User: What shape does this take?
Amino acid sequence: MLRIHFTTEDLTRIRIARTPDPLWETAFSLHRLQNTRGRWAFAEWHRAARLKLIGTPLGTAVRKSLLQVLPRASYFPDFLTPPEAEEGLDAGCAAILDTPPDRVRLEVETLDRIVGAPAWAARLTERQPREELVSTLRAYHAAVIAPHHDRIRARIDGERAVLGRAVLNDGLNGLLSGLKPGMRWRPPVLEVDYADDRDVYLNGRGLRLVPSYFCWHRAVTFAAPGLGPALLYPLHRTRGPGPGLPRDVSLGALLGRTRAAALRAVVLGATTSELARALGVSPATATHHASVLRDAGLISSRRYANTVLHTVTPAGAALLRPPPH
Assistant: This one.
């Protein structure tokens, strides 16, 4: 079990990631390729990824490099998922290249001791091998992660809306009590189901919460205690991700004042009952409008407490954006 110890100051320094972390999502997606557990939740993505990788030069490079140093195991090197990736893929890749060689050596040796590392991994202390690894990371992200960015972003935005509502309704205790799965808030300690037994004392540094699309089953944190405290945790799963916009959805079904108003009403997040009040319709009618918008990929919905919270997706936001002049 992982036990994260908060002080009063730490509670005021909780942050929620604004966007998906590209390198953590890359690492977790590689784990999904290495294991069948939970594959039902990523079935469409898995099929698309296999088409991009099997029998291709990229697939060979991923198998010979990325899967070797980012194994689905109790440990993989922290320098491959740097905190700088919060600012985007370019910033994260630059941080990998700038990692001090002594730190790379230490983490590769730890990987070899705990899991087993390929012989070539020792050369990652040198700039050129790291540049080659980063090149493969970028190519994999472009082929397998980037095409699904809008769907991933929509799920992260939905989680942020739920957590924000929890803070507004019940304060920070409500936020920490609502974290799931495998987490329990027992003030001042957040207990997290974990691969090993650890205590993390925040000591005023705060905690960055990073909901992850491809993370599965239980949360993950950095192995090195000196890195900024962050907790990567899986989103709730209700159904597996499918393709972007269903081909058989008629745009005509989305036209009309009521549904346009419904789409605008969920920009900042709205429950079904709030949506019904905003539209002046019954909850059943609001549910129907939400279903049409959700099936068209314009909003996402997830359960919050005893209701359902709807938030707009990037595709829905684009539809609401005024046309350029």
